[in-house]
Design a protein that fits this description.
- The chain has 210 residues and is α+β, with helices and mostly antiparallel strands.
- It has one domain: Immunoglobulin-like.
- The chain is built from two helices and eleven strands; from the N terminus they run H-E-E-E-E-E-E-E-E-E-E-E-H.
- A five-stranded mixed sheet has the order 3-11-10-6-8, with no helix packed on it.
- The longest helix has 19 residues.
- The relative contact order is 0.21.
Length: 210
């Protein structure tokens, strides 16, 4: 038996099978990490348990392609680990909403609108926070929302946000104090990529011995 050909054939079959089956992006690969938004005395606060030393990982799933608007994640490192979530009673006042504005972010980081994790087919995947020329601010409905973050290259990324009370047009409402939060990401090789690299090294080693 030619072990090298067997490994190559098995890898090819695995990639084709994965591509054929994948229609929705992966979501339960990551534990949920919530950005907890609260209000005290009309002042907004946000808290998240990550940092530059403990970033959310973005993975690329080799061979997978996604349908519809989710195709924006094709060939990207991505994650929906971060989810916006209310912490206690947050009352923006009649006719107002909680708005989130991207104030700065690393070059190459993209964001697409998500939703509840178990409802991926109903998510819009609309570009937000400046992605593809979209508005920098995003009207949050207060429901737990896991947006999708992606990047084309390996490396570290971050995005900072202003959280404020705004009217229907997104204009800030007087009498409230803004909150702020920074999210950290790291695009890393996915396990499948590492496995393929390992197979490649095995093949190269066998060729040398041959």
């Amino acid at each position: 038996m030619n072990i090298t050909n067997t490994i190559v054939s098995f890898t090819t079959i695995a990639i084709i099978s994965t591509s054929a089956l994948a229609q929705l992006p992966n979501t339960h690969t990551w534990p949920m990490e919530h950005i907890m938004v609260s209000m005290e005395n009309n002042t907004l606060h946000a808290h998240v348990m990550t940092s530059p030393n403990n970033p959310a990982e973005m993975l690329r799933f080799v061979g997978e392609t996604y349908d519809g608007n989710a195709s924006a994640l094709n060939d990207q490192y991505y994650s929906d680990q971060y989810g916006w979530m209310l912490d206690g009673i947050v009352d923006p006042g009649m006719g107002n909403s909680i708005w989130i504005e991207m104030t700065s972010q690393s070059a190459g980081l993209n964001t697409y609108e998500g939703g509840m994790r178990m409802m991926i087919p109903m998510q819009t995947f609309d570009p937000i926070f400046g992605t593809a020329g979209s508005d920098l601010n995003w009207q949050w409905d207060g429901m737990m929302t896991h947006n999708w973050y992606s990047a084309a290259e390996l490396g570290d990324y971050e995005a900072s946000y202003r959280i404020y009370v705004g009217d229907a047009n997104g204009d800030a409402v007087a009498g409230f104090t803004d909150g702020a939060v920074t999210l950290n990401f790291r695009a890393v090789p996915s396990p499948s990529t590492l496995a393929l690299l390992g197979m490649g090294s095995l093949i190269a080693a066998r060729r040398k011995r041959g």
